[in-house]
Amino acid sequence: MAEHTSSSITIDAAPADVMAVISDFARYPDWTGEVKEAEVLKTDEQGRAEQVRLVMDAGAIKDDQVLGYTWTGENEVSWTLVKSQMLRSLDGSYLLKPAGAGGTEVTYVLTVDVKIPMLGMIKRKAEKVIIDRALAGLKKRVESA
């Protein structure tokens, strides 16, 4: 099994409020930094995204990718790569848990495999940067709403 990278942050908002921001793909360019465009291609019977096209620009890595999303209950979403120019695979998830005083602990897990050769240590460092930026952006976005 591929090694993954994970990190958690506590956000001062209810899980439903955090998930509302996570599931609002059209607004990702407003707070994620790396996502320049986001387009929901397919939704499930509840109106949640099943496939999303993302145009990414993370400095050295620019990519046009499609991710498939799976929603588990109200507090978990995971995704996997459908197609990409730069990546061989990408698996991630957000897991939300209620935290004290109405907050939410958000855990982000990410595994990325690029098509170009890259040392595992460098790849995990890149995953960590992606996760930390995403969690910080999510926290700022949710708490400023």
Written account of the structure:
The protein has helices at 15-22, 28-31, 120-144, and strands at residues 5-11, 35-43, 49-58, 61-72, 76-83, 87-99, 103-114. The chain has 145 residues and is α+β, with helices and mostly antiparallel strands. The protein has a 7-stranded antiparallel sheet. Strand 2 (35-43) and strand 3 form a beta hairpin. The longest helix has 25 residues, at 120-144. It is globular and about 45 Å long. InterPro entries: Polyketide_cyclase/dehydratase, START-like_dom_sf.
Structure keywords:
single chain, 145 residues, alpha+beta, 7-stranded antiparallel β-sheet, 49% strand, Polyketide_cyclase/dehydratase, START-like_dom_sf
Could you give the topology of this structure?
Layout: E1 5-11, H1 15-22, H2 28-31, E2 35-43, E3 49-58, E4 61-72, E5 76-83, E6 87-99, E7 103-114, H3 120-144
Antiparallel strand pairs: 1-7, 2-3, 3-4, 4-5, 5-6, 6-7
Helix pairs in contact: 1-3
Offer a quick outline of the entry.
The chain has 145 residues and is an alpha+beta fold.
Structural class: alpha+beta
Mean pLDDT: 88
- Helix count equals 3
Low-pLDDT regions: none
Largest sheet: 7 strands, antiparallel
- Widest sheet: strand order? 1-7-6-5-4-3-2
Helix and strand sequence = EHHEEEEEEH
